[in-house]
Design goal:
The chain has 337 residues and is an alpha+beta fold. The protein folds into two domains: 12-155, Beta-Lactamase (2-Layer Sandwich), CATH 3.30.450; 172-335, Alpha-Beta Plaits (2-Layer Sandwich). It has ten helices and ten strands. The protein has helices spanning 12-30, 35-38, 40-48, 66-72, 91-106, 151-171, 182-198, 213-239, 264-281, 312-327, and strands at residues 52-57, 60-64, 112-119, 125-137, 140-149, 203-210, 246-251, 254-260, 296-303, 333-335. Residues 38-108 form the PAS domain.
Length: 337
């Protein structure tokens, strides 16, 4: 893990405490008085601090409080003091920590935050947020850091992020067929329209409708209708080969395919593959007037978008082409012109 986006991790009171602590440590060190021997009041304050307090110089740890021991799973301060700070850092976080230390040496007055993974004495990985500033410690430049272990919070944030991702995915999926729903279509259509407009690429839509689906539902019942819709959706999914193509259930028995960077000729080829795939399912339909099996009618429209155009015009054009197919006898493809 690397440097994370800088956020307000510390309250104003905590920042003031850090600044006062830096000033006091510097004053004591400059006077040549040992911090742990002569400033018992400040030692008690540091020991009672729930956050870890750590002083290092170019990575070598010079001082810690008991909270640092607890964070890293050690019993005594002697097990930590004198070692290199990188000994406690996850391999994936070492490079970013080195960059932070180097940056800190250049920014004498700035408080610099770091967010990364560290390693406990038992090998467990933990997440630690730190805020540090430069000080003078025993007459030499050093770095004062406040450490806060936030592993549980990070895990909770990750779980929430994953839950939100799943919810968002579900919000754009059709519950019956598992393909994209109308919301998914709307989002992808806006994205593809903008992309094709920006790069002067054609954009094609194929709108389709299962022929005589109401009669199919009346004959085979809603379970039969669901079976038909699921199989049609699966067949449509298998026809589309490019990751950039988007398939959605537009409503009821109507489906739509977005084909970015596809000319009319290419859209017609895809539409014919779809028509044949649905016919090839051989789902019985005794109420159909065009076939003994379930069939589909399709409308194709293609445009090269630009900023002066209304994106809804393409949808209306594909819908009109679909209407032409239905009116002309169904189980066919029409192109808007």
């Amino acid at each position: 893990m690397g440097m994370q986006e800088e956020r307000e991790l510390w309250t104003k009171a905590e920042k003031d405490e850090l600044a006062n602590l830096r000033q006091r440590i510097t004053e004591i060190a400059d006077n040549g008085v040992a911090l742990l021997e002569s400033e018992e009041r400040y030692r008690r304050l540091i020991e009672l601090c729930p956050d870890g307090v750590l002083v290092h110089a170019e990575g070598k740890i010079l001082f810690i409080n008991q909270s640092v021991c607890e964070i890293f799973g050690y019993n005594t301060e002697d097990e930590v003091v004198g070692r290199n700070l990188l000994d406690f850092v996850h391999p994936d976080s070492k490079e970013s920590l080195i960059e932070t230390i180097q940056k800190a040496s250049l920014d004498a007055e700035d408080t610099i935050r770091y967010d990364g993974e560290f390693i406990r004495s038992d090998g467990e990985y933990i997440h630690v947020e730190t805020s540090g500033c430069n000080i003078t410690y025993h007459g030499a430049p050093a770095r004062l850091n406040i450490l806060r272990e936030v592993t549980e919070r990070k895990i909770a944030e990750q779980k929430l992020k994953e839950a939100n991702r799943i919810l968002r995915h579900l919000s754009t999926r059709d519950g019956l067929t598992g393909i994209g729903n109308r919301r998914y279509f709307d989002e992808m259509f806006v994205k593809d329209w903008a992309q094709c407009s920006r790069y002067s690429k054609p954009l094609s839509l194929v709108m389709m409708d299962i022929d005589y689906f109401k009669a199919y539902n009346d004959t085979y019942g809603h379970l039969g209708g669901d079976y038909c819709l699921k199989n049609v959706a699966q067949a449509l999914t298998e026809v589309l080969k490019r990751p950039s193509d988007s398939l959605a259930r537009y409503g009821g028995e109507e489906f739509v395919v977005i084909l970015p960077d596809v000319h009319e000729e290419g859209a017609l080829i895809v539409a014919e593959r779809i028509r044949l795939a649905i016919e090839g399912l051989q789902i019985p339909h005794i109420q159909s007037k065009v076939s003994e099996f379930v069939t589909i009618s399709l409308g194709v429209a293609t445009i090269s978008p630009n900023k002066s155009m209304d994106s809804q015009d393409l949808i209306h054009s594909a819908d009109k082409a679909l209407y032409t197919s239905k009116k002309a006898g169904k189980n066919r493809i029409s192109v808007y012109s």
